[in-house]
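Suppose a colleague, Dr. K., hands you the sequence of a protein chain of 158 amino acids and asks what its three-dimensional shape might be. Before reaching for any lab equipment, you can write down a predicted structure in token form. Begin with the sequence itself:
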Amino acid sequence: MKTILFRSGLAIAASAVLAIATPAAAQLTIYEDYTPSDGVIEMTLVKVDEGMMETYFEGLRGTWVAANEVAKELGHIVDYGIYEVPYGDSDGFNLVLTIRMANTSDIGPNKARYDAFMKAWGDANIEQSNKTVRELYNKIRTIKGTYLLRSIDIPKAK
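The predicted structure, expressed as tokens, is then:
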């Protein structure tokens, strides 16, 4: 009797797993069932040394934030953001830097965009930013990775 109940239980469990797994086998069609955005977000994960977050923020204000403000004013980027990770893996990252671009093509090299940015940003700012990276950032932070994100719009099922 126990064997019959055990086998019946396995059959019911197998049926339940199959019923749950069936939607995963469905084939969705791009641009019919879901749409990838043309815009992208560059996300950089940073590990800032303990006790150095405010120092890093101060450096970012004069370098990364200032440069992104110029890029935003020029229309090269849509927006940027800084996100602190309040808890997590102590060996992982504790800060996320993002830059949002309207089009995928905005991530690639473009001489006209580069020249416009350099004209607006200036050689003095480039040298000061490079100095900050060499003398400060390289001592208090580690870049854990940079990723490119693309949002996917999946409409609610009908």
